[in-house]
Amino acid sequence: MSNKREDNYEERRAHLKDLSDAQLKDLFWELGEKMVEPLLKLGYEHTTPSIERSVLLRMGFSSTEAMTIVTEVLARGLIGKGAGHVVYKLSQEKGMSIREAGVALCEGQHWDEVVQLFKEAK
Fold this sequence. Notes:
Helices cover 68% and strands 0% of the residues. The chain is mainly α. The longest helix has 25 residues, at 21-45. The mean pLDDT is 92.
């Protein structure tokens, strides 16, 4: 039994051998973009609880408040809408500040209304 590897490098590179350095560079970036495209799509179309907590932190909520809101958003099946969007939409509907809306949600208020708001938006 031989440990020598069968080399098929020449066969595998046949479609590339006549390309210039500029063409190879362009092909490299084209293929790189094709590989990353599904990852970017996934990032744009899906979220996670940690991302949603991060959004709420940037909206000025404490980590405890953010965790409470995200937990409740998850429990109601609204994670796909975005926790920050939930707070924002409630604040718009009730004419309150984003901070007031988030604190109210942390205190267990308005959840039925929030669920209804997103059901009506479908």
